[in-house]
Amino acid sequence: MKQFTKFAAAAVLFASSAIANAALIPSASPVKSFEVTSSKAFSHTFDFNGSADYVKATDTFTAAWLTVNVSDQGGSETFAFFLDGIQLMDGAEPQEFKNIPNGTSLSYSKLQLNQTAIDALNKNGALTLSVSITKGNGSFNVESSSLLAQTSRQVVAPADVPEPMSLALLGLGLAGIAGMRRKS
Hints:
Blueprint: H1 2-19, E1 20-28, E2 34-36, E3 42-47, E4 59-74, E5 77-83, E6 86-87, E7 89-90, E8 93-94, E9 96-97, E10 105-112, H2 115-124, E11 126-136, E12 139-154, H3 163-183
């Protein structure tokens, strides 16, 4: 009985660990450098549908973080990041970034996506980033961008064996044992 209890406890732990697996899946833009001006925005779609690590039927995005690396050569501008046309928010306020100091490079890293963006990612398996100037007449370069997404995978448990079939199999097994015993 002790062995059965240990086996049952181990089976429950194994099954519960298999129900929700989490994974971090990266996606990066292939851009080398793209100049953003007041009339030209940067755009890239992060598409997880082709990733071997993402299965739309069983995976749910639970969090995601955006990183954008930029450099500036001159001018003065305020810019913003948009995900599927919705401006990245800082709490309840739209998040805007002030002028990048001329001649420097900056990394806006691990900007956490809000629930609206996560919902859009769950719906489509993809998210489009746009970077555009909201004020000013300067320009800057988007050097690279990446999106790191966390998923939770729901593993479907195998169906329970119906009770009548279990009893029928047990009966056949016992009949087989009895038959083997009679032959010898």
